[in-house]
Amino acid sequence: MPHLIVRLDRVECADTETITGADKFYLMGACWVGTKEENHTKSILTPPVSIQNGQTRHFGNDALIFDDEVDEDDTMVLTFAGYDRDGDNFATNATDMQKTLAESVATAIHYLPFKSAPQVSEVLSYAVKYGGGMIKAFDKDDKLGELKLDTPVKDIGVDDYRMVHWYEGGLGWSTWDYKVHYQLHYTDY
Fold first, then answer.
1. Per-residue DSSP letters for 26-95?
2. pTM more than 0.85
3. Of 181, 180, 167, 177, which is closest to residue 15 (Cα–Cα)?
4. Shortest CA distance to 148 belongs to which of 13, 3, 67, 32?
5. Coil, helix or strand for 119?
6. Are 40 and 68 in contact (CB under 8 A)?
7. Residue 15 carries which DSSP code?
8. Of 8, 67, 84, 117, which cross-links 17 as Cys (Cβ 3.0–4.6 Å)?
């Protein structure tokens, strides 16, 4: 049976958002794989990692997003946003927030009438915004960028390494330059 793995690899920082030192970078989002009849949803919330200009950090134990059997007709919708954590309450609320995000996404997708990839993509996009709102309720974190990917799983390669680049240029305050690398791995045996 076909198998799909979605894994975060690393984040590279050329320019932090924080001008006085390291950013505390994390990702939040969700991954949906399936069809309207049968599907799986996984939430994404990595712990913040301290990162400075010119540094690379690997996601380590929090890298695996999805690892399961799929049907060749399944679609994958992956969306996540990168943030710079500015507050200090992340660790105490992260587990509850991830559970709430996962439950909210699963419930919303369950009630979609057709569960098409565009509908699921909108739900996941909203979940990232909703989750960001939850974070901002106790932190004032800076959103650095967002990835939205909607693709049939059979179009994913065996070792399909990808990168998303988020940057805000300019002079002075609130500029950043990040690259997030991730891997999609699809086998049909």
1. EEEEEEEEE-SSSEEEEEEEPPPEEE-TT-EEE-GGG-EEEEEE--TT-EEEEEEEEEE--SS-HHHHHH
2. no
3. 177
4. 32
5. helix
6. yes
7. E
8. 84
Q: In tens digits, what is the pLDDT along the chain, a chain of 189 residues?
A: 899 999 999 999 999 998 888 999 999 998 999 887 788 888 898 989 999 999 999 998 879 999 999 998 999 999 999 999 876 655 445 556 656 666 666 666 666 665 566 666 676 666 666 555 555 555 468 899 999 999 999 999 988 999 999 999 877 678 999 999 999 999 987
Residue 23 in 3-state DSSP? Answer: strand
Are the C-beta atoms of residues 25 and 60 closer than 8 Å to each other?
A: no
Positive or negative, the CA dihedral 67, 68, 73, 76 is negative
DSSP string, 133-167: HHHHHH--PEEEEEEEEEEEGGGS-TTEEEEEEEE
Token pair of 122 as six digits: 């909108």
- Which tokens go with 59? 């996601």
